[in-house]
Fold this sequence. Notes:
Number of strands: 8
CATH topology: Chemotaxis protein chec
Shape: globular
Strand order of the largest sheet: 1-7-8-4-3-5
Order of helices and strands: EEEEHHEEHEEH
CATH architecture: 3-Layer(aba) Sandwich
Structural class: alpha+beta
Radius of gyration: 18 Å
Amino acid sequence: MDGFYGEFNVNLDEKGRIALPSKIRPRNEDGSSLKLFIGPALETGCLTVYTPQAWQALKAQLKANSYGFKSVRALSRYYFSMSREVTPDKQGRFIIPEKLILFAELKQQALIIGVDDLIEIWNPRTYAAYMAEQRKTIIEQSEKLSGNGLKNGSSGGAGSDGRAE
């Protein structure tokens, strides 16, 4: 798989179980479900789902900095104590621990988004508010990356009449 992309509305059942849509479900080479790691995304209030490779990279990054900084050690304690290993069943379902459901304020509905090498699980209202809040930042960053907006098959975000769409 070349990363995770898209948005998917899903249900959270009474057991705290969620199903990853097949289009975004990581698998082993034999087609079986891949072991995943789920933890809190402290900046945004959503949950982050990591593949084993992404999880190892996160661990290495924290470990490289943790011995010299009290604050990083505190972050490591919090983050790893909240995180869990999960293995989806054949339908892509796994149980989200109650602590993480409360952290992300998940109810019956959840929004799963692909973020390249990560998957995020959001309360849909929290995601909508976050995206509205970040709109200006997203536009500014897009302009910085390409000088005139990200190229997406159009002429730098301009319509056929030259005005921004």
